[in-house]
Design goal:
By secondary structure, the protein is an alpha/beta fold. The chain is built from 11 helices and 10 strands.
């Protein structure tokens, strides 16, 4: 009876994760005069040309580099990623307009500088579990657009299966990709990008911490000092593992922000799939990371972060309203945030939002 109950719960978990089946695009779209175009730069350890995708789920030891122009419709609602299948109508949906491949890291960083990253400043996004290239590219375009980020936005796309049944595959892919991510950070620093702000979602937080741990173990402060802030959004990490990683890293880049929600249904499922081990993105209190130089932002009381609550920081209109300009504020002021709870519009937001 217990075995059957477990199977039913696991099936229900997978149904939830796959409930919103992703539409599949079949080609690039024609631009629309009223749409906004965001350019997304990409470094990936995926291999090209699988299942109709630009990059698929198979793993590559070689880093590939590209830039993709993403059209955002004039009817776009902040926090949403409006999608469809087939060839997307750019008047109504997010749509890829074209892709340019780069032969290597030098051509890639040259394009970054032409885009406005001459001072070395970039936003580096690391996606989470169950993401295709299209998923993460569109999400980063939405973040860049909705948060008003002017500088270059770079996606590090590790080889997720893009399938809700691929949780174990994805965790293995994180370990596969950590050397490549470390190499990418080192190459960026070596080619003059000295102001890197990392935004990592879900299992991407695990990848980020593993790469930073490796850099610290090699004593490479030159690379670590180029990271001017880290934001872990709904991190899918065992808190015991995170504390150990943080201790090995030593002095964490500042600010170092962990965004949590006890209503995160995806992390609740991850806890079930990992033997009921709690995840960092659902911790009960900031005391669980006390003394590590970590700021906790609690989204539990936010009521407009989507059905799963797993992307509330970037999909909630309220969160976007509060956090717009945070990236610029981090770059200009540095320092650290105090812990705070983000609440709904009808309730007070703690004034500790201001950087110290």
């Amino acid at each position: 009876m217990i075995r059957w109950a477990t199977h039913i719960l696991l099936l229900g978990a997978l149904v939830l994760l796959g409930a919103c089946a992703r539409p599949e695009l079949t080609d690039f779209s024609e631009p629309h005069p009223d749409a906004t175009v965001e350019r997304i730069f990409m470094a990936t350890q995926r291999t090209p040309g699988q299942q109709g995708q630009i990059f698929g789920e198979r793993r590559s030891t070689r880093l590939n580099f590209a830039q993709v122009d993403v059209s955002i419709p004039p009817t776009h609602v902040p926090g949403k990623v409006e999608r469809t299948s087939g060839v997307a109508d750019a008047a109504q949906y997010f749509a890829p307009l074209g892709i340019e491949m780069f032969s290597g890291i030098r051509d890639f960083t040259g394009a970054l500088r032409r885009e406005g990253g001459a001072d070395g400043g970039i936003l580096l996004y690391v996606h989470g579990y169950n993401n295709t290239t299209e998923d993460s590219t569109f999400r980063l375009a939405q973040i860049k657009h909705d948060f008003g980020i002017d500088g270059p936005a770079v996606l590090f796309s590790w080889p997720s299966a893009g399938d809700p049944r691929g949780y174990v595959y994805d965790r293995d892919s994180v370990l596969f990709a950590r050397d490549g991510f470390e190499e990418f950070l080192r190459e960026l620093r070596g080619l003059g990008h000295s102001r890197i702000l990392i935004l990592a979602h879900s299992m991407g937080g695990y990848l980020t911490m593993e790469a930073l741990r490796q850099i610290a173990l090699k004593g490479d402060r030159h690379v670590m000092d180029a990271i001017e802030g880290v934001v872990l959004m709904s991190p899918d990490i065992d808190p015991d593992v995170f504390r150990r990683q943080a201790r090995v890293i030593g002095e964490l880049p500042q600010p170092f922000i962990v965004m949590t929600s006890r209503k995160d249904r995806v992390l609740n499922i991850a806890e079930f799939m990992t033997g009921r081990k709690p995840r960092l993105g659902r911790i009960e209190s900031s005391e669980e990371v006390q003394g590590l130089g970590v700021t906790v932002v609690d989204f539990t009381d936010l009521d407009d972060g989507g059905i799963s609550g797993h992307s509330a920081a970037v999909s909630s209109a309220r969160a976007i309203e509060v956090f717009s300009g945070l990236e610029q504020q981090i770059r200009e002021d540095g320092g650290a945030l105090r812990d705070f709870v983000l609440q709904g519009r009808d309730r007070r937001i703690d004034a500790a939002l201001v950087l110290q």
